[in-house]
Design brief:
The chain has about 290 residues and is of the alpha+beta class. The chain has 3 helices and 13 strands, in the order H-E-E-E-E-H-E-E-H-E-E-E-E-E-E-E.
Length: about 290
């Protein structure tokens, strides 16, 4: 009985010890849990501080980017304004230069005069002499002056006198632009007209053209329509710009009823010949 009591007593002591040990372990777990919770709070607080710092950095970065973009926009606007001012200054300079050239450049005009009869030779070619007076109405000499001429038969504005005149002016310009042709060119001073007489001709093939070539059912008309294309090309002594003055003139005849076309296969005395500008395509000037 005493041994049983001792055993029970011993068991009770062990239970107490176990209870005490269990209580200590629980406290340790609680303490550890509390320590973990504290650490978690610290981590959370650190994370919050990092988040706040990141948010501040992002805000600052946004402000920096906004500032940089504003600066770029201002520089771009300034560059555009500067370019606009430069363009305006260049336009003003160009206008001033053009005005200076226009007020000092040579200006050539040409006037035709009949200087011979309109006659058909044995080859059925029509010949006539035309004198052209070239006057410089500008303020400086016209240099490297070259004239070019041709004669066409114009039937119902075919070929186009304007287009043919352009070709004649291109021919004159080509000779004037070549510095090796100086011996073939003239210099015309203001107030000193230049006269040039040329024996012009129109061949039988050109003379034979008529409305019947365009409308087979039509009969050849009894008249011809010779058109003289005359152009002078030149430049100023202070500029490389090429200038041209050109005219398309039609040969006509004075008859009892006024000015009429020239009859086909006929000779016309000099005093009956008339030359007049083709309208509205008979002039070219720049």
């Amino acid at each position: 009985m005493a041994f049983l009591t001792l055993v029970i007593a011993g068991t009770g002591i062990v239970g107490i010890c176990l209870v005490i040990q269990s209580s200590a372990d629980t406290k340790a777990i609680v303490a550890a849990t509390q320590e973990q919770a504290c650490s978690a709070r610290k981590i959370a607080e650190a994370s919050q501080r990092n988040a706040t710092a990141a948010e501040g950095f992002a805000t600052n970065a946004g402000l920096i980017n906004t500032g940089v973009q504003d600066a770029v926009n201002k520089l771009d606007a300034q560059a555009k304004a500067t370019q606009k001012s430069a363009n305006a200054a260049q336009r003003s300079a160009n206008v001033a230069e053009d005005t200076l050239i226009a007020s000092n450049r040579p200006w050539l005009d040409i006037q035709p005069q009949i200087a011979g009869a309109f006659t058909l030779n044995e080859q059925r070619e029509a010949r006539f002499i035309l004198r052209v007076d070239t006057e410089n109405t500008g303020h400086s000499p016209a240099i490297r002056v070259v004239s070019a001429q041709s004669v066409i038969q114009n039937v119902l504005f075919t070929p186009n006198p304007w287009q043919e005149l352009k070709k004649t002016c291109e021919q004159a310009t080509g000779v004037s632009a070549n510095s090796n042709n100086r011996g073939l060119t003239e210099t015309i001073f203001p107030g000193k007209p230049h006269q040039e007489a040329v024996n012009l001709g129109i061949g039988p093939k050109e003379l034979a053209k008529s409305v019947a070539d365009m409308f087979p059912e039509a009969k050849p008309e009894p008249y011809i329509h010779p058109v003289v294309l005359w152009c002078v090309a030149y430049r100023a002594d202070f500029s490389d710009t090429e200038y041209q003055t050109g005219y398309a003139w039609e040969l006509m005849r004075k008859g009892p009823d006024g000015i009429v076309p020239i009859e086909r296969n006929s000779n016309v005395p000099m005093n009956e010949l008339v030359i007049q500008q083709v309208w509205p395509l008979g002039v070219l000037a720049n």
